[in-house]
Amino acid sequence: MTKARKADRSSKAVIKKRKKIERPRRKKSVAKMEKKYAPRDLEDIYIGDLLSKKESTGGVEAFPHHIIYNSTDEMRRFSYRYGFSVGKEIYRRTEGADSDALLKVLECAGIGKILYTPFDDGAVIRGSGARVKHGARCLPMHSYESGIISGYLSAHSSRPVFTKETHCIYAGDGFCQFAAHEWESGIDETRPKLFETIDAVSSSLRHIEGRKSGAYLLLSLVPVIKEPMLGESEKLMFLFGKRLAADRSPEEGIQEICKMFGMGRVAVARRDSGISVSIRYNGYNSTSGFLGLSTKAFIGFLSKSFNSQVRLRESRQKSHYAATLSVTQGAN
What we know:
- With 332 residues, the protein is α+β, with helices and mostly antiparallel strands.
- 47% of the residues lie in helices and 17% in strands.
- The chain has a 4-stranded antiparallel β-sheet. The chain has a 4-stranded antiparallel β-sheet with strand order 5-6-8-7, covered by helices on one side.
- A hairpin with a 2-residue loop joins strand 1 and strand 2 (122-128).
- Helix 3 (39-52) runs antiparallel to helix 9 (214-221).
């Protein structure tokens, strides 16, 4: 082999090696999970985690899916159908042996301690002890939870069951109550307006009590952290962040967004001309879709608060994602 050919091969090898080094590294644990698990598999994982908990976490909670699933009539119907499939899966997992399985899951939805009253042709499910103390009110918006109840009871009774939320803490009631009965055509079409929903959720963040169930949070978001729904869901989170900035200081808004998304470690550094927010996700919620939803809420809030563009830097560490958002006031 000639010296020129050897040199050519050597230079190609160097270039190839350099490209390999310069390519963004994606840690195996995160990449492996996203590659291995499809949305349905993630759903199975989170349902399993919910049912394996020794204690359910209650209290008043505000979740991102409350906004996303009440944004349009189509999304409201979709959330009911998705909840229906989740309810059926919960029943299948427990094979009807754990009569409290449905109640445990609903308590993780933040509607309080559940009282279940069955009748010959239906049931009433009522939450107690949960309250939202705020001025903003809207219509009942637990369509996803209504679907879960319908799916579980339909599987249990071997006949279609329809569920409607008759009372809701977001509507100013002192409790949430669901009426389940034999199947009727379609879902209740009455839904809150988008801005009413956003205002009700953002107002409730100031009064969250109890602990958040990470498994329930992620289970509710499984369909919307993947395309084709991810893009529209990110837009809603951006809009939510902007609305939140209307009456929150930067520190208050950041902490309340962290509450809604169940964030763990968040560091805020104030500067004379702006602010920097460093977020460390845990291995449990380190998926690109969840990162996209949560950072869009932060970006909407910070851009409105400082009237400036927000710089986002993402990174992947051993078993989790990390993100840093920085903004300089007046820099456009």
